[in-house]
From TrEMBL:
One of its GO terms (molecular function) is alpha-1,6-mannosyltransferase activity. Belongs to the ANP1/MMN9/VAN1 family. GO terms for cellular component: mannan polymerase complex. It is found in: Golgi apparatus membrane. It comes from Polytolypa hystricis (strain UAMH7299). This is Mannan polymerase complexes MNN9 subunit.
Amino acid sequence: MAMARSLRRTNPITLILAAVLAIGFFLFIVSPTSSTSNERRNYAAQNPLSPASKPFRKDQNGHPIPPVVRYPMNNKTGTANPVENREHVLILTPLVRFYPGYWENLSKFTYPHQLLSLGFIIPKNREGNAATSALQAAIKKTQSGPEEGRFASITILRQDFDPPLVSQDEKERHKLENQKVRREAMSRARNSLLFTTLGPSSAWVLWLDADIVETPPTLIQDLAKHDKAVIVPNCYQRYHNPDTKQMDIRPYDYNSWVDTTRSLEIAAQLGPDEIMLEGYGEKPTYRSLMAHLADRSPSANVNQLMELDGVGGTALLVKADVHRDGAMFPAFPFYHMVETEGFAKMARRLGWKCFGLPNYFVYHYNE
């Protein structure tokens, strides 16, 4: 019988090659190679908090397998030896204006930078836009510099509400009539920043105001070594004294205080929506202010502790467990206090004590 013309013209080698290719393609489809699996495993996200740029490892059916990560939260409590114990510190800063001195001082911290994460919240206005640009430029320079100077992570948030004051000049923002609305807005900003950035590995939270331009480089270690749940240094300001014609220092933050019998009597007479504020002669509180109890002599004991009923937030170190326990910054009158002072009241009612270091100074920018 004569063969069909099409088969006569087909080269047997072509048929063999076609069969081999078909078998190879079939094996490739049904049995992925081990090298492909290894590549996918190495490229997969390490945990559910990894950036979305890395996909999760997939099973044989192509379904993603997000790994299960267990965080033993009972082991996250901050200790008196945070460097030796490799404890992560979250530094949080509400920022309206960018002060180069703030960033320069922060960059000099001796605490291992790979254990420091930074978080900022900035208002959405013209001044906030300028602050964001300046901050991003500083971050880019630091994070592209020597590895030991880079921070573990940096988060920048923009407020989802308008600031209550148009001007952020020192005189305007410290007017008595502006305090309630200003500090309630500050509480909202602090809470937004805290709830967004606090992670399972955070052992401490350092609240550091954007206008703190001078601290000891060992600030975190110096505060943490006292092993207190909430601790705050004394915030002062350098200025030119017109009387002595020399540089001098003066108290700046009056929000760290101890209640007195008289101050408690005043609070008992206030309406539910009224708050007590420090530093205003027209409305004295008669509290004992840590700012006025400092020993400025060269022989002062910088480790001297005092228990406080209210704390300021210029440089406030908090064990992360205090925040996880529910202590936040009330944006409403809480026992006649808001923001950081309200936080101290809330922390104390949760069973945590607050302390201050009257002879340990940090310095605020002088406008």
